[in-house]
TrEMBL record:
Residues 29-97 form the Acyl-CoA dehydrogenase/oxidase N-terminal domain. This is Acyl-CoA dehydrogenase family protein. Its EC number is 1.-.-.-. Keywords: FAD, Flavoprotein, Oxidoreductase. It comes from Streptomyces fragilis. InterPro entries: Acyl-CoA_Oxase/DH_mid-dom_sf, AcylCo_DH-like_C, AcylCoA_DH/ox_N, AcylCoA_DH/ox_N_sf, AcylCoA_DH/oxidase_NM_dom_sf. GO terms for molecular function: oxidoreductase activity.
């Protein structure tokens, strides 16, 4: 299909040879625990996609990032899910680099080393809890001399086996004593940080989504991103940017898995022309919403709550279309296709977990209804 070919061309532009390397591995091996897909992603420059050029990265646009994610998802839904966690983390942190004084010298130095050293960043946010905002703190932070002691766990935590850094949302005492959101950057080899088995599903098993525990892990003050009196909106900006990036990138990865099935039906001319056209039209309509939200990010035509609402509308529309398309594609591919191999059945099953990523539809329903009626959008 034209749209999938276009997505794969963008991926090849930024990560030459990655898709070919993935295709050389049988699908079952790509998606199993211990798969090499994450290391292939690292080896082909995957780390730098959304990192600005002045920091050694590619500086891809939101639309290009959505297309790269779609290409990855078409070959390895596990890799697309894992890559999303790194990319949305990168997009948040580097969004703070545009204005002097927003980051400490230690933070800037670290960000300059991500691409040259190909450091993968895992997300220790609330992303595994469907009824919760992805940016809600999941780790407790106790102030100590020179920094904080962190305790808590994140499960599941994608990239847990390959991460170099863990970014965690934490609550720290503000100037008035009330808790405020902050972001801690924790080296994966920090004393007290450990990884434990957690993921039990065959689907997305190569995303390395196990449990990460922090037991009295020390993080120095200069590796914690906080608000300040001079920059009170620092974390608000970060939350908004991070939320939109997450919604678009995670949706794009699952869209890629469905795209591979639709492409198979169209290429092999399964079913009638009317059936194939209906399948392709539904896919392209969903993809158009997702890419439209990405374009709005690029041209700054939509900001703040409007951008968040647009991303969520695209996500839920895509979520519905993918499940329907995957089921219909399997039916059109036929019983012999199902009997002779599990590749397509696993791809179809792999689109369903989009529904499990926060915010779940019930949690967002009332806030969106209030927003559509003219009130503010509050997803807390």
């Amino acid at each position: 299909m034209r749209s999938l070919n276009q997505a794969r061309a963008v991926c090849e532009q930024y990560h030459p040879g990655l898709l070919e390397a993935l295709e050389k591995i049988p699908y079952a091996e790509r998606e199993e625990p211990g798969s090499e897909v994450v290391e292939l992603f690292r080896a082909h420059g995957g780390v730098g996609l959304l990192i600005p050029a002045e920091y050694g990265g590619c500086g891809a646009t939101p639309l290009e990032a959505v297309r790269v994610q779609q290409a990855l998802g078409s070959l390895s839904p596990s890799l697309a899910a894992a890559a999303c966690m790194h990319h949305f983390t990168a997009a948040m942190l580097y969004a703070l680099t545009g204005q002097e004084g927003r980051l400490t010298a230690a933070q800037v130095d670290l960000l300059h080393r991500i691409v040259p050293e190909q450091k993968l960043m895992a997300s220790g946010w609330a992303e595994g809890r469907t009824q919760q905002n992805i940016l809600s703190p999941t780790v407790t932070a106790t102030p100590v001399e020179g920094g904080y002691r962190l305790s808590g766990s994140k499960r599941p935590c994608s990239l847990s086996g390959s991460m170099d850094l863990l970014t965690a949302s934490i609550a720290v005492p503000g100037e008035d004593g009330a808790p405020e959101l902050a972001v801690a950057v924790v080296p994966a080899d920090a004393p007290g940080l450990s990884v434990h088995p957690f993921w039990g599903s065959d689907l997305l098993a190569a995303a390395e989504s196990d449990e990460v525990r922090l037991e009295d892990v020390f993080v120095p003050e200069d590796l914690v991103v906080r608000t300040s009196a001079e920059d009170p909106h620092r974390l608000d900006d970060l939350q908004t940017a991070g939320f939109i990036w997450f919604v678009l990138l995670i949706s794009a990865g699952y869209t890629g898995a469905a795209a591979a099935l639709v492409d198979e039906v169209v290429t092999r001319e399964r079913g009638t022309g009317v059936e194939r056209a209906a399948l392709a039209l539904r896919h392209e309509a969903a993809l158009g919403l997702l890419e439209g939200a990405a374009r709005a990010m690029s041209d700054d035509s939509t900001e703040g709550e409007a951008a968040v609402a647009g991303a969520l509308v695209a996500r839920y529309a895509v979520q519905d279309a993918l499940v329907r398309n995957a089921a219909q594609a399997l039916e059109l591919l036929g019983g012999m296709d199902f009997i002779t191999g599990s590749h397509h059945a696993r791809l179809a099953a792999a689109v369903r977990p989009l529904a499990f990523h926060p915010p779940a539809r019930p949690a967002a329903a009332d806030p969106l209804l209030r927003y559509f009626a003219g009130d503010s959008l509050d997803l807390a």
